[in-house]
Amino acid sequence: MITALALLGYAVCAAWCAPVLLTPLTSRGTSVRAGLAAWLAAMASVLLSGALAIAFALAAAAANWPQLTQDLCRSVAGDECTPQVYGSALYQVGVAAFAAALMLLSAVSLWRYGRRVQRSRAQTRSHARAALLVGRAITGPGAGGPGPVPGDIDVSKSGSPALAGRRARTVTLDDPRPAAYCAAGRPAAIVVTSGALAVLDPPQLRAVLAHERAHLAHGHHALTTVVRGLAAAFPGLPLFTQGAAEVACLAEMSADDSAARTSGRETVATALLALATRQAVPGALLAPAVPAGPLPRTALAAAADAVPARVGRLLAPSRPGAALLAAALLAAIAALLVLAPAALTALVR
Predict the structure, then answer these.
(1) Is 136 helix (H, G, I), strand (E, B) or coil?
(2) Are the beta carbons of 53 and 7 closer than 8 angstroms?
(3) Residue 239 and residue 230: Cα distance in Å, rounded?
(4) Which residues contact 4 (CB under 8 A, 6 or more apart)?
(5) Residues 240, 246, 247, CA angle at the centre, nearest 5°?
(6) Among candidate residues 211, 232, 209, the one with its CA nearest the CA of residue 220
(7) Element of type H or E holding 79
(8) Is residue 102 within 8 Å of 54, Cβ to Cβ?
(9) What are the backbone dihedrals phi and psi of residue 143, each rounded to the nearest 5 degrees, phi first?
């Protein structure tokens, strides 16, 4: 039981303290891959610790229930916990009710997670099907992308098993609001609104499409679905609620970097600003603008998360030394979090 309590205490502490360590190192996107790995490692560590705590508690309860109830009573009341207290039927029923409540809480959290993930996947696929039904294929100098059908993008060679043999179709919808996003499905859809086509020039449109292809190729939709499901399952824990927002922002930054490798950093930055400010932004960028209002947030959108920070890192990328230092610190934190449950178990036992 001591092992279970130690693991549970660690899980609670890490769920509250890990964001304090990780956010300053990841919010600027200095090392995107290391940041994603660190957040996921922290979440996995807390979940594993919680699961191990439950397993050890159940094992201890099954092995020696009388001794367990006695130790629990004396850990709270000390010498005042007499045999008449911990041996009474009322106390035994209370301990059993407490254990049942913990199991019920775990089951509810698991149900909330599964429901959120299933609902998110269904909504995304439904939106992809609807967009492909009513949308028009994009053609012209800005559409780009390989494939035998105009507007189709081949993602089967992306290295993602989930996308093997699939294609993503690019369509435009009549909507005056500038937006571009991707929705995973069979096939996936990349949607660009008519409002976006009105404010993007051909190089910027190619950059936006490259951004969305990167989301699909790297499986960012699955990643964000998982972490948002965890945030729904554990709404009171900062690691999952704040971590979901940080992972979503880092996924956008990762897609920005992929698009910048083919289109250039300034082109990606001006495209983001054009979508965010709802007006054309020339290629010669003088100063970053600030988004003028709320943006549509369907699936993974090109300009939906932390636009000023993303534009800033595109126009003023971190120095290699700073990126290396951030990656090293994040790797050390991730390693510590991953090893902590096993080390704590071995130490206590």
Answers:
(1) strand
(2) yes
(3) 10
(4) 52, 53, 54, 55, 56, 57, 60
(5) 85
(6) 211
(7) none
(8) yes
(9) -70, -50
Q: Are residues 300 and 285 in contact, defined by beta-carbon separation less than 8 angstroms?
A: no
Token couple for 153: 């993008």
Q: ω into residue 238 within 30 of 0, thus cis?
A: no
Closest by CA position to 325, among listed 19, 43, 24 = 24
The amino acid at 12: V
Task: Report which residue type is found at 226.
Answer: V
Alpha carbon distance 66, 48 (integer Å): 28
DSSP code, position 132: H
As separate numbers, helices (DSSP H) first and strands (DSSP E) second, the chain gives 12, 6
Three-class secondary structure of residue 225 per DSSP: helix
CA-based nearest residue to 49, from 331, 243, 338: 338
Integer CA distances (angstroms), 329 to 42, 50, 210, 318, 342, in order = 14, 25, 30, 15, 21
C-alpha span between 244 and 249 (Å, rounded): 9
Taking the CA atoms of residue 27, residue 220, residue 266 and residue 199 in that order, the dihedral angle to the nearest 10 degrees is: -120
Per-residue pLDDT of the chain (349 residues; tens, 9 = 90+): 678 888 889 999 999 999 999 999 999 899 999 999 999 999 999 999 988 888 887 777 766 667 667 666 766 666 667 676 666 777 677 777 777 887 788 788 778 778 877 887 787 788 788 888 888 877 654 454 433 333 444 443 444 444 433 467 899 999 899 999 988 877 888 999 999 999 999 999 999 999 999 999 999 988 998 998 898 888 889 999 999 999 999 999 999 999 999 999 999 999 999 998 888 877 654 443 333 334 334 345 655 667 888 998 999 888 889 999 999 999 999 999 999 988 888 887 6
- Tokens 């435009």 appear where? 172
Q: What is the DSSP letter of 167?
A: E
Q: What pTM does this model have? A: 0.76
